[in-house]
Amino acid sequence: MKLVLSCMDRRLNEYLDSLNDGNTIFLRNAGANLYAVRNTIDSLLNDENITEIRVITHTDCGAMKSVAAALSGELKLDLAREVLVDKFRGEKFATVEELERINTELQKKAVEEIAKRRGIKGSAELLDLSKLNIPKEDKEHKFILLEPSSKKYKEIIGNGEMFNTYIIQSASLEEKLSDLEIAIRVLGIKRGEIIALKESEYRITQAEASRLRLNQLLNGVALSIRRL
Fold it and tell me: Quick one: 2-227 is in which CATH superfamily?
């Protein structure tokens, strides 16, 4: 079994589906940030027969643009500050393109450390989006929240919304908060969906929502819940 961590960017959905051989588990977040989903990765490595971890970052990355803006003081991020922005403090870069390369190197170092400790393969790569066939998308963008899965995205969201859907994919709601902040407050997405892949319904208790400041974050967002 392989594990792929990539960015939540809507433009990657079809490409990542092309890598899905049915024997690969996918995780997605802002910037393909391993640090933010470390608990999920450790759990999967303990519970699944993972033999390889692959991190795929990409060019023209909205998460890295957000990091650059946050570091310069142009953008204020709260939930994404510690798990994403702070990882780049002290790094020297003049362009977002340089920051994307730095991010790839940081993820490469982190994944190789995990792989060495676990005795498995680990790699990180920067994907050039200009080489993908990405159609122009005029539909309203949305996000979906998923648990780690080897199910193809076409089976989950359908062909009609493959290029307008950002996918945030990890094991816990808490790990998804920084990605939600970027999706809602930076990208301006106003429509989201929680998709439950397991038989049990995905319920968010009022206490949990309050503890995670979820109601405040989702203010003005149309959120639905669907079971597959």
Answer: Carbonic anhydrase (3.40.1050.10)
